[in-house]
Amino acid sequence: LRVEKRITTTYHHQCNCLCERQMRTVKTMLASHCEKDHRTWDIFLQADIFAYNTSLQASLRMTP
């Protein structure tokens, strides 16, 4: 699986850039669904996570 464990410092998100990039992508996906009413983000969360997890990542050439 080529999993690499990284220990990062608390409140220093720059150290964990891969995780931060994934969170930014999910937030962008949610924002595109909730343009008019930001209180409905939880309705779309599960579908957006599924879409992200099943999409082919260009850098990995596989799904995350």
UniProtKB/TrEMBL annotation:
> Which top-level group of life is the source organism from?
Eukaryota
Task: List, alphabetically, the InterPro entries matched.
Answer: RNaseH-like_sf, RNaseH_sf
Molecular function (GO) terms listed? nucleic acid binding
What's this protein's name? Integrase catalytic domain-containing protein
The organism named in the record is: Nematostella vectensis (Starlet sea anemone)
